[in-house]
Queue: 2 jobs
Job 1
Amino acid sequence: MKLIDSHCHINFDAFDHDRVAVVQRAARAGIHTLVVPGVSRKLSQSTEWQNDCGAVSIIQGFGLHPYFINQHQDTDLDWLATTLQGDPAAFIGEVGLDSTVDHYERQLVLFSEQLQLAIEYQRPLVLHHRRSQADLLRLIKPVRSRLPVVPGVLHAFSGSFAQAKEWVALGFMLGVGGTITYQRAQKTRRALAQIPIEFLLLETDAPDMPLFGYQGQRNEPAQAAQVLLELSELQQLPPAMLADIIWDNTQRLFRFNQ
Ligand SMILES: [Zn+2]
């Protein structure tokens, strides 16, 4: 079974002291590839972490994340454009809107600019949302036809079936992570049980979003295997079959050859 963690921050300093071991645990759990989004220019410019990841393949993205809004300069958008130009395999992300952190107006500006880069360079988007799905949809819908055929993924989907359907109607994938392991997340679990599997990706968001039973601990990519088991119960499909379909979905989105 070949799994892929479609969203993890293995480059974060939470993994600096034992990254090799974390990556090896992931490989042993069947995780073949890690998708690593970028969150800021500064973090993207340190690349030493890649030396620790020999046990897996890496797909990398670049973006200006709303959590780091105070760090982003206008010139970082030029850096992002140059980086995309130089790396045809790079996706745009993690970008988006988060109404629980500061400077929402500035977030809107930066997101709109990065949406334009997705059009200009024809790259998929990895979207962060928190109480912002309506605003993201409002900005994306008018330009949808100019985005790539598979335009992106709404990472760490949580919400209703109606919300999930809106994204799927635009061709977006939904990132399925640890949220579904919590019984209290009934609305999200019901939504993801009904969405066609062709639109689902597996993810951890490690080091964040620990699974049920691991609250307060650092999350890690190996846990994607647990998320798969939970999703296979929700979708009532055998894990191996689900894993194959999710692999294809991820490949369709990020257009990699593995
Ligand atoms: Zn993330």
Job 2
Amino acid sequence: MPELPEVENVGRALRDCLRGKRLDGLQVNYGGVLKPSPRQVRSALVGKRLAEVNRHGKYLILDFIGDPNEDRNEDHAYLMIHLRMTGQFFILDDYIADQHVHLIFDFEGRPVHYRDVRKFGRLELVEDPIRPAAIAHVGPDMLSVRLPEWRERIGHRKAPIKALLLDQKIAAGLGNIYVDESLFLARVHPLARPCDLTPTQLKEVLKRARQVLRLAINHGGTTFMNFTDFHGRPGNFRRKLRVYGRAGQKCRDCSATLEGVRVGGRSSVFCPHCQPNPAR
Ligand SMILES: [Zn+2]
């Protein structure tokens, strides 16, 4: 499943390759991924240029702009993209037939394929380029939330910190892999309750979460599409994982055996020595 680093890299690729280019056409093979309808999406976007690509958590919002009208008002349309489980973009030199390609955007002759094996992804017209109503329930972005706000949102909570970090209503963008890595670096046990942590520990969790996300972004995320064909190659961040997926193996810092625990239905891996359980 694409997480914040993958989504950020998709956004950067779309911005780098397509900003300023005009959308000349939109071929729809399967309209179920478009909201409100293929006809409405096509009529809102075709003829406009891609002006900017924004990201909030795991959502991308494409800002399209039309030619200035007589009143010199700028005519914008915004397309919000949530890749969900298997949504992918491929910016190709040619059209490629594939049963999982549901949309092909034509940017001045450059075909941009939207491929989604599970069809859970959504591309939806929204009214705002930063924080549309459709994601009003989603908390501030993990990379930009300020420490006082983050403390306010999480500091008094009594649920396990692992579950709260995964809760996109508190802050958006952390998935399972990155939560485990962040808690390890912050030396905080996944079952610890934020209300029991010191202000310094809470600050450390946020700092480490950002560090992990930035590192993953710079390494192309844990999976990475090379945008030349449908065969993604694995991002090289996976090699850098300290705890995720390593239960039973040795801690890279202290050589203790890493343990697994389920928190809120999700598997978690931690080091019992580096991240002591506050309840014991
Ligand atoms: Zn350790």
